[in-house]
Amino acid sequence: MKNGKKRLLFVDDEPNCLKAMERMLHGQRQVWEMHFVSSVREALEAVGENDFDMVISDVSMPEQDGFTLLAALREDEKTKDLPVVMLTGVGDDDLKCLALNQGATDLLSKPVSFEDLMARIRSVLHLKAYQDELRQLNNTLERKVAERTRDLENSHIDILWRLAKAGEYRDEATGDHVARVGCYSRLLAKEMKLPETFVETVFLTAPLHDIGKIGIPDSILLKPGNLSPPERNLMQRHCSIGAEILRQEPRGQRMLMKLTENDTYSPWNGKDNRLLDMAVSVAMGHHERWDGMGYPAKRSGDDIPVEAQIVALADVYDALCSGRPYRPAFPESKALAIMKTQSKGQFAPKVYQAFENLVKPFRTVRAAFAAETSLEDIMSIRR
Length: 383
Fold this sequence. Notes:
- The chain has 383 residues and is α/β, with parallel strands linked by helices.
- It has two domains: 6-139, 3-Layer(aba) Sandwich (Rossmann fold); 169-380, Hypothetical protein af1432, CATH 1.10.3210.10.
- It has helices at residues 15-24, 40-49, 66-75, 93-101, 114-168, 177-191, 196-205, 218-221, 229-236, 238-247, 253-259, 274-285, 306-320, 332-346, 349-356, 359-368, 375-380, and strands at 6-11, 32-37, 54-58, 84-88, 106-109.
- A five-stranded parallel β-sheet has the order 2-1-3-4-5, sandwiched between helices.
- The radius of gyration is 34 Å and the shape is rod-shaped.
- The chain starts with 5 loop residues before the first strand and ends with a helix.
């Protein structure tokens, strides 16, 4: 609509018919902006250049008829809902059914009277106005839903990040280990040409790989010397502890659902949550080895989820290059040599091959996130 006027397009190959309709509707010039063309080609050109509220077209025209115009309008996303009233001089009831079946709003017989034409145009314009208003309301609703969804996603990501950092606070010597492992994992997934959704999900869930260390006593977690076999067994339980933390239904959830009188909604429902599903997989499997000699389940080969294969390598690289209570950090050259020696048994071949192409980017990540890193710093990696 332009200047408050409804815009109408009339199509007829007979100049006398166009002039008759123009004279008939002359009194509506104050409220309607009317355009008159004599062919389907001109009509399509006019529709491509203007936004019309309605088309009134003759059916029988040489070369291309009204049904050709109707089909072209319905195939175009811009005009697929544009109301089209067909005019015909042929007294055939089957023609009206055909027009309606192909998407016409209505079909009137020629010669059409002033009263019938005015009534039909006004009815169609009112209907279109309601449809436009409904479409605008739907668009507004969809936009608000999308904004709300983004807000919820961001809040979930924020919670996951804070949970990962909570586990890291138990061992201050690891610095920003969880941030670096997330970045390394993203680099590996991209190098392996995995789907973008996977790349982003592993980036967000890899930092949770050691969340189970929350359940390990400080006397073991921070012990400066070697662990005894019982202590090592207890330390290895952090994988299953982490998976259980991420997997279990929070206590009191059912009561919360009853209080909200909604038995289906749960903000913590992980059944269809790709983030939590992958986080569980990573927490449980990041110490498994390709040769089956890892823990806790001694899974081997491709029986180990690919996200766990990726985080396993990222975790080892960062652990070797970082100081621990029981040893200082290794120089990167030594860390790389150790990883190469262990590559055939410990790491998935495809993951290690990707890593060999990423040594320089890994080094850049270590330098960028050597200091304490904020959530905003980490999320900026996604952009």
